[in-house]
């Protein structure tokens, strides 16, 4: 399902502009976050000075309003920046998982095909050995030996291919498990951070 979603032809057209758009949004959020930090520091110091100076209440309330707005902007920009990075990482992991699952299915099909071909050649070799054992003169015996050697070489070749494909299949399976484990860890971390965010709210 994820492979169908992320391999949709529309994404390949948008992918050219995706990195630029992502970097632009990241830079914009960083600028907003730094501006909010500056505003919070500015109005915090003014808030303390005005409180110690005991000025009129309207000016003090105005400073409190400015401080509240700057803190609100700080939280919004900070969590937006964090969640945008988490979203980017999640999409990347899902794409990698979809590709690994597709390669895993292709390797499994290849292993099954190689196994069936090896079984077929071994059955043919056994049948030929049974049919040609003890029959014919010297020429037939020589041709039988040549055919048998050829079949043995083909069987050895297919066994080597089967072993290679099996190793690649196990490697892909290990990579899929690692990506799944990483995705699960990221999901747990995201849930934990969302709980912290809710507690902060």
UniProtKB/TrEMBL annotation:
It is a multi-pass membrane protein. The keyword RNA-binding does not apply. Coiled coil: none annotated. The chain crosses the membrane at residues 17-37, 74-91. It comes from the Eukaryota. Belongs to the BCAP29/BCAP31 family. May play a role in anterograde transport of membrane proteins from the endoplasmic reticulum to the Golgi. This is Endoplasmic reticulum transmembrane protein. The lineage of its organism: Eukaryota, Metazoa, Chordata, Craniata, Vertebrata.
């Amino acid at each position: 399902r994820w492979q169908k979603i992320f391999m949709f032809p529309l994404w390949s057209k948008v992918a050219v502009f995706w990195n630029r758009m992502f970097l632009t949004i990241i830079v914009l959020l960083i600028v907003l976050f730094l501006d909010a930090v500056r505003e919070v520091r500015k109005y915090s110091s003014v808030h303390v000075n005005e409180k110690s100076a005991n000025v009129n209440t309207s000016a003090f309330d105005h400073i409190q309003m400015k401080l509240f707005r700057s803190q609100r902007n700080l939280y919004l920009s900070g969590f937006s920046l964090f969640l945008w990075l988490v979203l980017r990482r999640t999409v990347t992991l899902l794409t990698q998982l979809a590709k690994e699952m597709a390669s895993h299915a292709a390797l499994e099909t290849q292993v099954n095909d190689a196994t069936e071909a090896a079984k077929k050649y071994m059955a043919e070799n056994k049948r030929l050995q049974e049919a040609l054992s003890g029959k014919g003169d010297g020429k037939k015996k020589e041709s039988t030996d040549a055919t048998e050697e050829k079949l043995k070489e083909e069987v050895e070749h297919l066994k080597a291919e089967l072993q290679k494909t099996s190793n690649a299949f196990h490697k892909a399976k290990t990579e899929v498990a690692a990506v799944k484990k990483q995705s699960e860890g990221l999901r747990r971390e995201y849930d934990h951070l969302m709980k912290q965010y809710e507690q902060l709210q």
